[in-house]
Amino acid sequence: MQLFKKLNPLKRKLFKSLTASFKNSKNLKELSSISPNKVTRILIVRPNHRLGNQLLLSPLIQILNLEFPHAKVDLVVNGGISDILYANYPNVNYIYNLPKKPFKNFGNYIGVSYKIISTKYTLAIAGEAKSNSGKIFLKLSRSKFKIFNNGEYPIQSIHMAHKPIDNLRFFLHKNQLNISKAYPKIDLKLTDKEINKGRQIILSYFKNNLPVIAIFTNATGDKKLPEVWWNNFTALLEKTFPNTNILEILPKENTSQVNFKYSHFYSKDLREITAVIENCNLYLSADCGIMHLASATNTPTVGLFNGATNPKIYAPYGENKFAIDINKFSNNKLIKHIADKQWL
């Protein structure tokens, strides 16, 4: 285990050197003239296990469905959560779930890899242009057209969900500089049954008709906001909005940065968590996978960024979706922002 960790920097350096010369397929100019009906199978390569990174593929999948309505889309990811996230996407055909730890599951890794490189595709596209492992799978894929990046074209957006869409549009629409800047929202395609179940869960916690504020106080690594911040902020939240309910959504580790002082909801079902947030009036958290789940709902979502990650790349986006830099926003200013929006 320790040996593998020590080898990781060397592995990244080796892969970066190996993939530095990988380029888009030379025939991409032909992509704009191909009939959409002739694009029958598409591969998206994003071998990463994080919830947020897999969720951020959904706008690209939606765009591919609009551009190529008869095509089936296969995904290369790590872990098994994409099976859950894209369960209601009819154009998602097959999901290659690479093991999160390839050295510990080498046989499985090789087996899945062989399936990927032995399947023919019309188009293959990188979900993240900087992913070295993604570039390797894209290079090895048996695809007629391969999009690693947008070449020399100045990108429209650096947001993680937008970049592969811009890359696709650039080559698909004859290298026009005025390509559309509209992007679909992140979407799990919750069913009415799932949303109604989320509503019933909310009603089981609160026997009143007051607005519900959902908070998620966890995050990975440096993105996690300290207990003192959360306690100071929620105290001000309670004082400013006394006629509201606060529901803390707990992480899989079942921990709380506010010492479980609010009603709290625990579930390992990602679709159920999303349905609960859908039935709330406001969601607040640091940058994390659950924040992106909230971004997939119609609930106003505020992502709290502390400088550990770039909101221009990872912010929740869409109607009533905001990123707040807490280094520039005091708690009072943040509360005023919420009050001015009249969400509660």
Which structural traits does this protein have?
five-stranded parallel β-sheet, LPS_LOS_Heptosyltrfase, Rossmann fold, alpha/beta, 344 residues, transferase, Glyco_trans_9, ADP-heptose-lipopolysaccharide heptosyltransferase activity
3D architecture notes:
The model has no long low-confidence stretch (mean pLDDT 91). The longest helix has 18 residues, at 2-19. The chain is elongated, with a radius of gyration of 21 Å. The strands form two sheets. It has a six-stranded parallel sheet with strand order 8-7-6-9-10-11, with helices on one face. Strands 3-2-1-4-5 form a five-stranded parallel sheet, sandwiched between helices. Strand 4, helix 6 and strand 5 form a beta-alpha-beta unit. It has helices at 2-19, 51-55, 58-67, 81-85, 106-117, 132-140, 163-172, 192-205, 227-240, 270-278, 289-295, 311-314, 331-341; strands at 41-45, 72-78, 92-98, 120-126, 142-147, 212-216, 245-249, 263-265, 282-286, 301-305, 321-325. Helix 1 crosses helix 6 (132-140) and helix 8 (192-205) packs across helix 10. The chain folds into two domains: 19-172, Glycogen Phosphorylase B (Rossmann fold), CATH 3.40.50.2000; 192-341, Rossmann fold. It has 13 helices and eleven strands. It is 37% helix and 17% strand. It is α/β, with parallel strands linked by helices and 344 residues long.
